[in-house]
């Protein structure tokens, strides 16, 4: 298993084509806008070497029997699934942001199921190929971007009937060595911190769309791949002097548009090619896993709750009954989220390949709550934090003696609370509810792993309404 | 294990002193008001003999190694705890009401922990006594009423300072053979269908209150015990001709006030006597277990969701997008409840006696949601059901040819839906949202196993706020 | 203006054909099940004679210039509309139930607009006829049932294509003297306490449905009209000995199915006959007025809030911060409802006939909140009331010395609170949240004046989305 | 009345001491960070000259009888109050932000009541002085900052017992010419765009605090006053090239810390000086008026709803039933807010000075909803907008041909929707839900005019609980 330092070094050796604010970025690892997101991924390496986190952060490879980072592991039982949920919460609670590495874990687990299933039907060799690739990922301890979301163009049309045929990523050529693909993947979390990009289709496909039913893995710096870095609320604060106003001093997340401009993929990296009837199941498995992954938001919630309690302490409001009650409510909602992540894991089961997958109904239910509760937790945090969170002058004003003296004097609350600490904690709450981390804690909670309506459709499909209706009939005396 | 028939027969042999509507009830088993609640308990016996339910409904005694009804089992691992949650949902989903038997199960599990702990400190013999009693319960397959809630009198005063010393049940005399107790237990679910009453204290006690720190078990028909049966919304419908208007034709629940008028308890049935410092932990363990038990409400929710879907089908509204969306929301909330029950079970752990107890934080979180979501599910059910649920004339009007012809004609919707079936399903929804079952599905969900504020206090005690504050400080750069 | 006594006497002179629990009711005024609903209507007469209520309860007829009961008034300005909202809240706050008389008021106001508009187009004489009829209603101070809701049969079909042509009320014959109608009106609030039935169509109609586009008024005891009385949760308690268990000792509401079995209507009582294109506007005006009328629920909310505060006082919980906060929330929601009723009235405007009508958008918004907030207020009331509300034995048990002594002893809280008073207030809360009054406070709040989805459709039609879109475009720099 | 141009010119003549990002700002009018907030105030001048807005934007001075800008008007009747609510919504709906001028209007109205009342008790001459000052404000058509919120220091201590005596603004010296004050006002909306600062105390005061009971007006550039400009989420985007990423191209709001460093106030500008018992009423009147003023948020809601509908249109999702339903919900909540603003205005009444004040209970209820609904509206907006709102690269990337071509291609939806327009509308939604405008739409909605708990306390004080309890007792038969 790599250390964090080794991970950082390995990134430096990649030659990614990244654009940010209209410029090509030469050194992505040290870029001040990108760096915090790299730090968050790096922590997934460092913690795996700490004994107190070993149980959650590592696992035993079912291929090699070696100890591996859990992010590269195929879940072998429900205990693995539960540990995945707990690992997510742990990392969220230590970083206060999206640490980006779960998409790759969810991609390899989903592929381990579907490549096996395709082989069963067509006697293809995808599963064996996939296991070879997986062993490489485990041995090298790589970060993989699980890339699913296509731009989708006109949402009323299937891939093959789009005005622009590239609205969904597809195979445009094929030869003995491999295939050539064109298209893009949008909203790619952590893409720029990844060694590998694992591409999957984004929706169920029909016969007509079969060129779009394609899955493969490539090095992140393969020829023809470009990254355009997404901007976030308050991203420019990372370019300012001073650290306070960025809120979270250490960690962040990012998303990028990843463009595949006629990229070649050798056959040994291809895991699905035109088996369109398997696109849907791959999407559903990935989605179920990834909906479970939002356990991390309970961890980010821990940070926001802690920050809010500190803001109350610093304001001298910590004993007010309404403040205590609101913090209870924040914790209640946050733990309800965690219950969902645990329950869908505990109710998971084995697929034909032996991979354990979460209970899909409960994973969808869990994610649906993630589209709601963080917003209410954030609202309550803003309630307790008070208005200074959005009216406080900048750190430069605090540092300027002419204005800093007034800020020190007039933002003082209790005598034993340094004014600067009060400002620091308010900036962290701002970061989580309006700033760069709000992107992950709120909007990504809404849309990541599928927007709310996607989960609602799945819930309606997965509940057994006939059984419920039959009991109702019986109880009220309707003959059946 | 007894069959349902054997259970019913065993009840007939008891000589309970039960009052209902101002009268002593001679035959409680066949009384039309009480009968449906007995039927619900009876089902817990019958299902244990059906192979498809065996895994959930039975367990292996850790004392005798024999197969026993799970309701008499001491949880040996988290799998047992998870099965308990699933058994609760199953029974709720088959009866559409409170089946009453979980209070006894929760009482014996809590006592198995606390009697052991008292012995550890005082070298008393409670645990051994308790196991002997438990073996009797398992062998005879008995229903136990776990009786905790005291009347409590003036809520601002402790037991020993109440104007009426009997506001909390207490020991009033003691001799070589046993103790004499006086007091009452209020809101006792299923008391009248029980073979045994297991009494526990209701709050943490101080030295002054030690006469109130008492736990014991007695046959339900012991000398000096009286039951006054609580009335429920729409209870009189069970005395009317016709079955439709009662909604649920088969099952119900009940609560009673149980009075202990100077009742003698032999020492071998006493499990705590004046060890006041253990009262609090017994209450907390029982409360945690019992908060988990509200998994049953997800089962009752299944019935209400099924009935609501049928009402939509019968009204011809089942394809309206807003109807579909509301049913999804009902399912979503219902499954969120289930997630809580599963999660607190899965995160349970062993106590010194070896008994497994649920995760207390998550059990409180789960119950807190139970005080909310059933109300919203019921509101949505009423939305979809339509106003006829509360304006429909009586079954007698349907049977009277002069009026029945108009009801048949004007309450007709689709040609293939018998009007009577439409009325039946609406009466079931009325039963669950306003009638006898609403008592269990709504108000008992609010107050059973502790009112909402009790859970909120526990949540605030059980979360680790210091850990959350420390990470927040670290992330925003506050020196610690 | 009649006194309450005169109103009651006038009802005795009617010969209504009413069925209840499978029997014809001979004396509707003194029937114990029906009586409380008559009492509530009666109060609308008595209050009009009390000076402190005169401003709200009376108005000056725009026809005769005489002082009349406001329930028979045509709104002449926005002040009238605002007073109507306040009158509704007043009556709800004094009765704790539905007082039933607003449907007639809303019907005459809607007809005053539409009969005028039909005349404008077709030079019919409906408006003049209507004013003559109105003068009779004002002079005699009559209660009118505004009867709109048809049974509707298969909801996917229009009136003229129903399998049963009577699923919507319609004209089946016509001669020089008048018309003959057949059909029914369901869920008719207060029908059995009315002197007159004013029939209106229930939906917009097309040419094919023109026989269904009919509006008229008839004496409530006209030949061929039958009433089948709807049953309510806990209605049988009104037949028991004792008064406590019914909760509200004085007032109630009711709904009935009103059947028109080939009923003759003379031309001078016909206000619309086959002018199908006006059916929709009549429905919309009535619906807007009637959605405003739910101001009464803020009044019922006042009663429930008062009862809940008393329950807290009697339980000794009135100083707990969570109790105070919940009562604030109940008041907040209740006053938010009132704001809606006031706002739609204040923003009303004149129609061509001179009648003032409420702002339709805000009336729909207001009613939409009525479909939600009473449920939450009721939930909070149950939270504060405690479980005894649903587990308390019957009044007969309280009166029986053998059991009454225990109830007195064990349901005692503070020494200065009579146990019976505690039970009385809990029974009132039960009445409002589960019992006969819950029908009006909850389910009727949901469906009366149109179910929630009906309001949502109106909201979507009435907001000016183009204006909102244009400003958004302008602000973000999109050329238009 | 000034034009917008004249207003801008008048600001240029002021010599305000403003600090921003650690620097003194030389030209506040043209500073790119400040400018949008000036534009919003400027619109309040320009609209007053447009005939279609004249009715809402202007009024007739009760002092001079001249036409004046309504922002300088003393409300003379409930119609004035209702027009104030409508003016607020209008301006919010045209600017999509806080236009800052209501604080001054609310301050002069509150002072017109309290100066009159002080005079009544003490025969002081404050009211006359105030009217002279008001006439000057009306004649010159000035923007006034109504400055109430003190820093407050340790919230558990009153002003006179604070460790730092300046934690509340107070009189430190007095002579024949006037008084000298020291302290600060925090979170001052629009301070830097104001001609005048009107200071008021922030809480009710006791005898000991009388030096803190002070109210006065000063020119904004009076000697000794400094402004430290508060930073907002995404404020730096106003310094970037390109306009798209700022979302709202034209308007914004701001808050500042205003420091009074021993500032002299001549007696003719002093409106309260040590009459401590009137501090509370001044605060309450200002608070009630200002809680009404949040009508503006319904206007900002209009912009967000329009933007969200456009995002749905551009995404091709406008016909999805869940999208339509969510937009209905946004409108429903937004109009519910408006109902509150209208209702508290319509129910207003005259104070002894003749000034009309809103109904305080309903104003608090209305504001309480403002602390909730905008958050839910924003959440729904983010739901419909989709994830691109937070993952879209910068405008610079769009302008760079190497990356812009990919953005054009892959962010394309419908063929007739320019990709740039789609990005523009998403940036506007980002602005309103996470960016500079979120400060006003969300956090200021929470805390402006008092945090939620302040309103809850007022609601509990203003409802008539005794009346509610008495009716409840009567209805359930409790003797009184």
TrEMBL record, chains A, B, C, D:
It comes from the Bacteria. Keywords: FAD, Flavoprotein, Isomerase, Lyase, Oxidoreductase. The keyword Flavoprotein applies. Residues 279-476 form the HpaB/PvcC/4-BUDH C-terminal domain. It comes from Desulfosalsimonas propionicica. The lineage of its organism: Bacteria, Pseudomonadati, Thermodesulfobacteriota, Desulfobacteria, Desulfobacterales. One of its GO terms (molecular function) is vinylacetyl-CoA delta-isomerase activity. This is 4-hydroxybutyryl-CoA dehydratase/vinylacetyl-CoA-Delta-isomerase. Its EC number is 4.2.1.120, 5.3.3.3.
